[in-house]
Design goal:
Mean pLDDT: 87
Largest sheet: none
Distance between the termini: 49 Å
Order of helices and strands: HHHHHHHHHHH
Strand content: under 5%
Number of helices: 11
Shape: globular
Radius of gyration: 23 Å
Structural class: mainly alpha
Low-confidence stretches: none
Amino acid sequence: MSDVGVIHDIGYQRYDGPRLGRRYVFGSLFAHGFRTAFGLGRGAKSKIFPWFVTGVVIVVAVVLMAIRAQTGTVVLTYLQFPQTLGLLIVLFCAVAAPELVSRDLQSGVLPLYFSRPLRPSDYGLAKLAALVAAITAIFAAGEVIMFLGAAFTVKGFGNIFDEFQDMLGGVAYSAVHALVFGSIAILVASLMKRRAVAAGALVAIFVLTTPVFGVLAVLPSTTANQLSGLVSPGTLVGGVGDWVFQEQSGAVDIGPYGPLYLAVAVALVVGCTGLLLARYRKVAKA
């Protein structure tokens, strides 16, 4: 037997194509995350709940459109639409956020992601942006349906334009809900590898703050009543809507504290985003 080695040509070639860089990777991760939030590209079980929530929102919008077309009655305004269906946002976050981040933690693929050129901060921001965009898209779709029905109900281009402006305000308010709820959800889910545990923790955070709000709201103190909405994400966003969009949600009387509600909401989003980025920097170093 010969001891001489043999080199076989297996046709290996260097990659000479374009290096697309961080921006392309970020965009791809965002697009994949947006699809994942709706269960696209996954099994049938992953699609059931996201599309159930989407279906409920669409059905409610169609019913509201039909009532307005038949009777001329506005049951819910565009601003009241996301506020009234806030529980659906919580449930959607509880399912979508763990799918977006907990699965990657459990499968151990993050070191592969964090090889070049994607940075840990890019990963966290892409996942957050995907969840926020998914929530906003669901409620924007419902509001567009409501607008289309109203456009054939009102008379005159001026009234249609006013209706369109009202719809844009509703979409903006939906985006506020998505930012506040989504930033909390992604942060909590990023701390837990098991999706079921992450989903339960998310529901607990959103639901258990409601009784605290209820206790503060009935205290014999006007100041405590007006500040009670700060303790719960739902009432916090409701207070922002009351002040910024002049929409009286009825959940809490914010009194003169509208700027404080807005400041707390901004601080909450910024704080959760900062902690999210710190979390993935820590994961990258592990």
